[in-house]
């Protein structure tokens, strides 16, 4: 393992002004997104859509540091025959790959999930590296509800995240470690804070036990935020203050960077929260975005599967990427959104 190189890539992934595009929707998830815009989820349409994003010159060259791909996408070529991975590299961004194989019910723990995909992971990583991937992603899903999460679910998911991370580093690939505490319930921000603290503490404990080099990884957490169905929604400043307090308590400064998931926040909320956190600096790690929905909802709608809408889709993507790029430096203002509307 060349830790200097892993650290160089991890640091580039969270460079100020840039963040990560999570375009790693599995076939089921991208179908849901396409259903919402009335587009059939064929291999060709998935390719065309992602090609549109990766050819968005302004977004990709100025605001996107890396792209997380799904297995199908990493092997696909653009319409002109150029591998999609090459389009990403040519823009200056780093290609990455989602390597988990989704979740399964966790036995003995009703309502809880464990992420799978460790079997043959070492072989798969080797092939992904040869294809150009320089980082990977594995997402654990922790739900908050009555009596959950259990320490069992937190423990097995942390163990799997650390196993994955160690395998990645041995394959010279930077692991994005994503333990997502879902914001789906009616819990308040303090319950999210408490559960996320337990999840991150356990995750870092496992990373240490399994000898993962913290300097060669990126953390992709949720923010401390109210559940979507909670009657009292915490304001932006409270989300920012509690998230930073929580991360400072749980994430060692040796970690080069933290890149948030958006988790179902609206586009503008996800941007405003990141921006407000930067007002609380200086921070011990790079802090940016690794958004899926909060970067793609607007371009998906603008594109709607029509070739004549490619420019509109790219402009919607570039706008969101620019807004989040500014937020990653604490330079975003809501008036910039209005001007663009
Ligand atoms: C883009 O969505 C990713 C893949 O989800 P599935 O495996 O369910 O298809 C997801 O892991 C994503 O990378 C993160 O959750 C961040 O995305 P959001 O939309 O929460 O910002």
Structure description:
Strand 4 (103-105) and strand 5 (113-115) form a beta hairpin. The strands form two sheets. An eight-stranded parallel beta barrel has the order 1-2-3-6-7-8-9-10, surrounded by six helices. A two-stranded antiparallel ribbon has the order 4-5. The protein is 49% helix and 15% strand. With 341 residues, the protein is α/β, with parallel strands linked by helices. The protein has one domain (3-340): Aldolase class I (TIM Barrel), CATH 3.20.20.70. 2-O-methyl-1,6-di-O-phosphono-D-mannitol (5MM) binds at residues 22, 24-26, 29, 68, 139, 180, 261-263, 291-294.
CATH architecture: Alpha-Beta Barrel
Report the major sheet: 8 strands, parallel, barrel
**CATH homologous superfamily name?**
Aldolase class I
Runs with pLDDT <50, length 5+? none
With strands numbered from the N-terminus, the spatial order across the biggest sheet is 1-2-3-6-7-8-9-10
* Beta-strand fraction estimate: 5-15%
Helix and strand sequence: HEHHHEHHEEEHEHEHEHEHEHHH
What gap, in angstroms, lies between the N and C termini?
47 Å
CATH class: Alpha Beta
* Mean model confidence by pLDDT: 98
Task: Report the total helices.
Answer: 14
Q: What's the shape?
A: globular
Number of domains: 1
CATH topology: TIM Barrel
Radius of gyration: 19 Å
In terms of structural class, how would the helical and strand content be classed?
alpha/beta
The bound ligands are: 2-O-methyl-1,6-di-O-phosphono-D-mannitol
The portion of residues assigned to helices is 40-55%
Strand elements, count? 10
């Amino acid at each position: 393992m060349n830790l200097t190189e892993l650290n160089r890539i991890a640091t580039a992934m969270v460079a100020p002004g840039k963040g990560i595009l999570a375009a790693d929707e599995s076939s089921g998830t991208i179908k849901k997104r396409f259903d919402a815009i009335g587009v059939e989820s064929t291999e060709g349409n998935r390719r065309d859509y992602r090609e549109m994003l990766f050819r968005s010159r302004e977004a990709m060259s100025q605001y996107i540091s890396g792209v997380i791909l799904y297995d199908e996408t990493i092997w696909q070529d653009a319409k002109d025959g150029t591998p999609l991975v090459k389009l990403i590299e040519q823009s200056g961004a780093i290609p990455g790959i989602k390597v988990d194989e989704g979740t399964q019910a966790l036995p003995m723990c009703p309502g809880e999930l464990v992420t799978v995909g460790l079997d043959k992971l070492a072989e798969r990583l080797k092939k992904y590296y040869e294809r150009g991937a320089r980082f990977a992603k594995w997402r654990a899903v922790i739900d908050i509800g009555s009596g959950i999460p259990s320490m069992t679910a937190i423990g097995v998911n942390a163990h799997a995240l650390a196993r994955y991370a160690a395998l990645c580093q041995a394959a010279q690939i930077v692991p994005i470690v994503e333990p997502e505490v879902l914001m789906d319930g009616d819990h308040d921000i303090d319950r999210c804070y408490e559960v996320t603290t337990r999840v991150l503490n356990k995750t870092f404990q496992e990373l240490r036990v399994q000898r993962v080099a913290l300097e060669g990884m990126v953390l992709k957490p949720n923010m401390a935020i109210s559940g979507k169905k909670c009657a009292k929604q915490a304001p932006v400043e409270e989300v920012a203050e509690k998230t930073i307090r929580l991360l400072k308590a749980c994430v060692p400064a040796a970690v080069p960077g933290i890149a948030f998931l958006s988790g179902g926040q609206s586009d503008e909320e996800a941007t405003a929260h990141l921006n407000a956190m930067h007002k609380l600096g200086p921070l011990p790690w790079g802090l940016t975005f690794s958004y899926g929905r909060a970067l793609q909802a607007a371009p998906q709608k603008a594109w709607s599967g029509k070739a004549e809408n490619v420019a509109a889709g790219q402009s919607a993507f570039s706008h969101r990427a620019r807004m989040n790029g500014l937020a990653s430096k604490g330079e975003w203002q809501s008036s910039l959104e209005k001007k663009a509307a």
